[in-house]
Amino acid sequence: MAAVAYDVKNLVKTYPRQRAPAIDGVTFQIHEGEIFGLLGDNGAGKTTLVRQMVNLLRPDSGTVELFGRDVRDDPRHVAMLVGYMPQKSAALNRLTVGEAIYFTAHLRGLSRQAARGERDALVELWRLGDIVDKSSEQLSGGQRRLMQLAVAMAGDPPVLVLDEPTNDLDPVNRKHVWDVLRDRNTRRGTTVILITHDAVEAEKAIQRVGIVQRGRFTALGTPGELKSRVALQVHVDLSFTPGSPPRLPAGITPWKSAPDSWSLRVDPDAVPALMAALDFADITDIRLSSATLEDLYLHYVS
Amino acid sequence: MSPNRNAPSVYAQLVDLLLIQLSNYRWAWRGTVVTGVVAPVMMLLAIGLPAKQYGTGGLAYVLVGSVVMSLMFQNQNQVAHNFAFMKAMGTLDYFATLPIHRAIVVVGTVSAFFLLSLPALGVTLLLGALFLGVPLAVDPVALLVVPLCALPLAGVGALIGLLAPGPQDVGPIALVTTMAMLFVGPVILPPDTLPDWLMAVSHVSPTNYAASAIQQVLVGPVTGRLWVDVGVLAALTAVVLWVVGRKVPWHAR
């Protein structure tokens, strides 16, 4: 069993002039080497939770321990071990991309020479070579997000806390982010805690997920565990010759239709009947997929 | 669990923070030209020409007032804008998640803006001396006095930036504060031209002591009053920077 990286107990936080708590008695653990995802609506309390985990916000009550030490007892403990990427992307507007990575690596304890090496490696990893000398305020939202990821990783902290790492990114870069995070986790055992709305892509990386609503976890576990707790429907995508739609069993109707394709959602026990009823002579393509993390998320927040 | 490395030394933190904050020249240079040189020199000409009736002694006040004005715009106002920016944009949060001391951020910021203010200060001083015909008598103690005049002003600027509701509010607050501190006391005008009540109020204004100290070390003569000014400025620097340190949002406080 891996060591516990984060141990959060009975965390409560209510902002001034707010009646409802932003975080309402949250208790959970994150193990070393885990990729943990936080999903939830806007305003559900995810950012408040991670800001308390990186010691930027004081809880009203409860504790956050990182590798067995309360984060408030020694702020440097968190600062040495955690690379935090905030949601806001304008924090380093005055520095160039290269400077931001270099200074962060050096301030996390690398020698000046090692910090320069780290800068070059991260510039290559995040494909920032063309913009390394640009001031970050000159960057697009997506480029700034990649720079923030490089800054969070600078100095190779064993824990990464990333607040919406794929925001503003195009599909190619989104995929690259998930690939890099998975690789970092596999090769170096980096613990990754991330907030994301990109549930479809996140499913490929996340090992355990917490779904947050109104400051509480409404679900917490591996995607497989959570899926097994609820009866989620199977996705069926059918393609057929235009003008020759297949017959469907009674009670099954497409939720999305085009002249040559349908999308269906079917209860798992109704799949055999559907397959038996279809005339495959008219079907050009059929795809079945089980419920996704996005379905799970939508199920719990609905 | 890794990494097995030590946090950077205080010296390394200070050098990095100084270099990071010096990068502000990228946006601050325009302001330096306009408010650090053009505005003080314009004021110097506008007030200096009519003040010629007061002789070299009166003109020395105008010259020193322009130098103090340049210091205020470059230190107090630029630092105010920088702290407001850092607070609003999350830069202070970024620093707080690194293994560095809060005080280093404050010291690094005010030191960087002081260094950035020196060219404007020099140009204002030389142009002022040239236009007004005031002979300069620079004392080596200026190396101690000039930073000591800038630090409390930078501290006041940091407080404005941290306490202002938003970055958009900093400009008007900083400008009103600058004007008030310039005209409260014998900063620009000789003391015998000011009413008694203004002279009494001037004892609580740091610019009063800064102007007195700068006049002694740049124009002369240096008198025993310099050490009173230095003492007050040093005490003000310590108090203001301590308050700034307490007000910087940092970790889970």
TrEMBL record, chain A:
Its main location: membrane. One of its GO terms (cellular component) is plasma membrane. It holds the Pfam family ABC_tran. One of its GO terms (biological process) is response to antibiotic. It is found in: Cell membrane. Signal peptide: none annotated. Residues 6-239 form the ABC transporter domain. It comes from the Bacteria. GO terms for molecular function: ATP binding; ATP hydrolysis activity. Gene3D superfamilies: P-loop containing nucleotide triphosphate hydrolases. InterPro entries: AAA+_ATPase, ABC_transporter-like_ATP-bd, ABC_transporter-like_CS, ABC_transporter_ATP-binding, P-loop_NTPase. Keywords: Antibiotic resistance, ATP-binding, Nucleotide-binding, Transport. The keyword Transport applies. It is a peripheral membrane protein. This is ABC-2 type transport system ATP-binding protein/ABC-2 type transport system permease protein.
TrEMBL record, chain B:
Its main location: membrane. GO terms for biological process: response to antibiotic. Residues 27-251 form the ABC transmembrane type-2 domain. This is Transport permease protein. GO terms for cellular component: ATP-binding cassette (ABC) transporter complex. Pfam families: ABC2_membrane (PF01061). It is a multi-pass membrane protein. Belongs to the ABC-2 integral membrane protein family. GO terms for molecular function: ABC-type transporter activity.
